[in-house]
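Form P-L/3: holo structure prediction, ligand calcium ion.
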Amino acid sequence: MNKATILVVEDDTPVRNLIVTTLKTHEYKYLTAASGSEALMMASSYNPDVIFLDLGLPDIDGIEVIEQIRSWSNTPIIVISARSEDDDKIKALDAGADDYLTKPFSVEELLARLRVTIRRLSLMSPEGSSESSEYTNGDLRIDYPAGCAYLGEEELKLTPIEYKLLCLLAKNTGKVLTHTYITQNIWGRSWDNDIASLRVFMATLRKKLEPSPDSPQYIQTHIGIGYRMMKVE
Ligand code: CA
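OUTPUT (holo model):
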């Protein structure tokens, strides 16, 4: 894909300038907005490839901006939060954001998040279609019609829940999924017990999937938030 167009939504001028300068240096195209209403207008008029969204905006709450954009668009949204509380990030991810950056962040961090998100975009494009009956990522392969997963040549002996979990993460490769989102999808509810069970299933899944479970390659943990399937080269 050609260099993506990024919409930067941030009311704090120095932070906005830092992001814009970084994007410019790396030859991304960019648009800017300093309020929620401007963000909604820019997002609908210019259809950017990725949106960086500050949660603390002067007019509309960032969470509401995500909800509104999600009502008509799947454009990846990376939330920027000055608030260190995990609650805001979780709310943003549950509202449909794809990833988050916590202020203060480094330029390297910003670029890394952008790369992950753009890689996710190319996975969603027709040739890497989510409609396809097979998923491959590094040595991992999922044969959806057969309901089997393989690591290299070896079939993974997964329980039905582990398999469901793996498919959910695979379908959302590159995206951080919250505990609530995952448990809702697996069990149709999200009680404290389910989140505790999720940890157990994740541990057993990793033992089968990861060559070295202590330094996982495929499934990344976001402490207090959730999990993400990484794209493995
Ligand atoms: Ca702000």
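COMMENT: The pocket of calcium ion is lined by residues 11-12, 54, 56-57 (CB under 6 Å).
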